[in-house]
Amino acid sequence: MTPRSTDGDRSSGAAKPDPRDELARARADEARADSAGVSPDKDAENADGPRAGASIPEIELDLARTREEFAATLDAIEDKLSVPAHARRLKASVTRRLDSDPKPVLAAAAAGTVGVVALVAGIVKTIRR
């Protein structure tokens, strides 16, 4: 949809754009794009619903396949947003690294400990002033 122009110049006497007219123009542009087959939000497979001549079992199979894809997508999104899942993966990664070569993991842990101690010491020093 085409955004309305937001010219602040009202002193020129120009008429304000009619939102209904702009909406009608945007819908006409969309319809032209759809009929030309250039709509980015519709693919050829799902543009007009089930394919012509599809039997009921074929349509049901397509629906089941779509439900499975949707469920897999939701599971992937849930996994990406899950803090416990991230913690489990981080723990597994650190455990694998520790098993393969413990020196870098121990060095990182020591550096982190020194950083936390320095931060706490700085805070305590600042508070005591």
Explained architecture:
This protein is mainly α. It is built from four helices and no strands. The N and C termini lie far apart (about 60 Å). Residues about 5-10 have low confidence and may be disordered.
Q: Strands, helices and their partners?
A:
Layout: H1 19-36, H2 56-81, H3 83-100, H4 102-128
Helix pairs in contact: 3-4
Q: Descriptors for this entry?
A:
129 residues; mainly alpha; elongated
Low-confidence stretches: 7-12
Structural class: mainly alpha
Radius of gyration, in Å, reads 30 Å
Distance N to C terminus: 61 Å
Number of helices: 4
Question: How many runs of DSSP E, i.e. beta strands?
Answer: 0
Fraction of residues in H or I helices:
55-70%
Gross geometry: elongated
* Order of helical and strand elements: HHHH
Strand content bin: under 5%
In short:
The protein is mainly α and 129 residues long. The chain has helices at 19-36, 56-81, 83-100, 102-128. The protein contains four helices and no strands.
